[in-house]
Model the fold of this input.
Amino acid sequence: MAGKTLYDKLWDSHIVSEESDGTCLIYIDRHLMHEVTSPQAFEGMRLASRLPWRKDSIVAVADHNTPTDHWEKGIEEPIARLQVETLDTNIKEFGALVYFPFKHENQGIIHVIGPENGTTLPGMTVVCGDSHTSTHGAFGTLAHGIGTSEVEHVLATQTLVAKKSKCMLVRVEGNLGQGVTAKDIALAVIGRIGTAGGTGFAIEFGGTAIRSLSMEGRMTVCNLAIEAGARAGLIAPDEKTVAYLKGRTFSPKGQDWDRAVAYWATLPSDVDASFDAMVELKAEDIAPQVTWGTSPEQVLAVGGRVPNPAAEADPIRRLGIERALHYMGLTADMPITEIKVDKVFIGSCTNSRIEDLRAAAGIAKGRQKAASVNQVLVVPGSGQVKRQAEAEGLDKIFTAAGFEWREPGCSMCLAMNADRLIPGERCASTSNRNFEGRQGPGGRTHLVSPEMAAAAAIAGHFVDVRNLY
Amino acid sequence: MKSFKQLKGLVFPLDRANVDTDAIIPKQFLKSIKRSGFGPYLFDEWRYLDHGEPDMDCTKRPLNPDFLLNQTRYRTAQILLARDNFGCGSSREHAPWAIEGFGFQVIIAPSFADIFFGNCYKNGLLPIVAPADLVERLFRESLASEAYLLEVDLERQKVTLPSGDAFGFDITPHRKHCLLNGLDEIGLTLQQADKIRAFEARHKSAQPWLFA
Ligand code: SF4
Done:
C-alpha cells in the first residue's frame, strides 16, 4: 500500500464521520476570527439560541478596519467602529481562548498573531473566515479559509462539512540567490500554474529550497497558496518548526511538549506517498518577481517586459491582457524597470513579519525614498513584531529613509481603513492581491517582495534589488 | 436556508475570466454587520460611474452604460453565466449574498474558485460547472438573443436550452439534499453530536495539548 501524504494524515486524523459520497464531517481544532466575517455568524448563533461548542478553540482579533496611526483618536468611521465593537461584544458574550481587541499591545493581523502565540500547531485543523488562513499550513497544519455560514457551523458544532481535496506537490530544489525570497518562489509558482492551477487541490511545498526557508518565509509561501487557487498550502514540520514554537504562550509545555514533538515527527509525507499532481521548479531559475496586471498570475521576472496582447493567440487571454494593461496604465512591451511607483506598502499577512521588516530595512539603510514617491508605509504584522523591530532599531532606519512607521493591522492590503491608493495611483506592495481596486478604487498594485518594495521606494521605479547589495 | 428546486430564468452573460470576489462586492461594503442588503452593490465598481459607499441610495447613482448588466433587459436576470475561475480571491460570503440579493439563483461557469463554490450552497445559490465548449455556446446564444432563458432542474440535474438541447451537471448528494429541502446544515450536523463528542474524547486523549 502506498504511503500517506502529510495532507492524508491531517485529513484522516480529523474525520468524525463520512457519508457514502465522500462528504466528511471534519473536526476543527482552532477557530480564528476577525471582525469582518464573524458578525453575521454570531448573529445566527444568537437567533438560534446556540452556544459555541468549544469556546477555548477561538482566537480572535480586530485587524481589518483598524487604523494604523493616531490610535488615540479611535476608529473615526462609524460603521467600521461598529463592526469592531460588535466583535468586542460578541467575544464578551460567547467567549474565546484569547482576544486581542483594537489597541491591545499584541493586536495584529490574525495570520501573524496565531503562529506567534503558539495557537497554531502542527497536526491541527485551523479555519478562519478569511482565505489567507492557508498561511498556517507552514506549520504542517491543515488550514483553510471558510465562509461566514461555515464560521457559524464551526462555532456551533466544532466541525466542518467538507470533501477531501486532491493533493499537489510543488517541489522547489536548489539554492535561492541573494535578493530572491519566499515571495518570489510563491509568485513564480502562481505564474507557472495560474490562479486556478491549484483549484481542488491542497498544495504541499517541498524540496531543498523550501526546507531552507525560515518559518516566516514558509508562512509567506503558504499564504499565497490561495492565490494559486488552492484552499490549503502545507509544509511538513521539522526542527525549524519545533524551534519556532518552543516557549510560545500557547505552545504545549512539559511532558505535553515532548509528546507533541514526537507526534509532529510522524506527520511528514511518507517517502512512498503518491501525489495527484506534481510541479517542479529550480530555485536558481527564480528571479525577483513583479506582477504587472490585475491577477497574481500576471507576473514576470524583474528583467522582463510587459506582455503584448498581439502576441497572445487565445482570444479570452488576449482580452484579459488588454483589460489589465488598460486598467494598470501600462504599454505593451515596456520594461518592468521603467514602471514608476507613487506609493509603497510594506505589510500584510504575506510580508509583515520580523524577517520581512529586516529585509526591507537592509535595503533602506543609509538610503532615501525617491522624491517622486508620495508615501512609503511600513506596517508591522503585530504588536510583537513592532516591538521587536523597534528593539532592533529598524523603525529608525525606516524613518531616516523617509518611510512611515505605523501601528499593526491589515492596512493598505485591502484598504478598509484610511490607508489606500487614490484613483490612478501606482503601488509597489508586499501584499497578496493586485485585483482592480483592491488597495483603493482605481488604484494600481504591483506585488513584490519586501526587498523589491524597499528598492522601488528608493529608486522611484522598479529595480532589480540584486544590484543593490 | 432557502430551498432551490427548479427555475426557468433569464441569463445574464458576464464575459470575463477570473472575476474575483473584490469585484463582486468591493470591501467598503464588508463593514456591514448584516447579512442582507448587498444586492444593489453587486459588481459596484463596474456597475456605477461614481464610487459606492455603504448605505448609498443606488437608485440615484449614475450607471455605467457600458456594463451589460445595466441594460433594461437584464433587470430580471436569474442565471449568471460566467467564465473560468469565477469567485476567486477573498472568502467573503458577502459575494454570494450580493449575487443572491440581486436576484440570481444559478451561476453557470466552466470553473469556480473553491471557497466561493462552497459558499453558494449555503445561500440557496446553485453553482453549475459546465464544459468549456458548452459555456462558449451559451455565451454566443445569449449575447445574440434579447431574452435568453434556460431551464434548470436540480432534482434531475439538468439544464435545458431554448433549442431543447439539454446537459447534465454534477452535485454531491449531500448538497443536493440540503438545497432541495432548504435544510439548515447546522441542525443536520448536530444530529451527529454524539459522534462529535466521541471523536473529541479520542482526540483529547491522543493530543491533550490541543485542549490545554
Ligand atoms: S493582511 Fe490582507 S490578506 Fe491578510 S488578513 Fe488582512 S486583509 Fe486579508
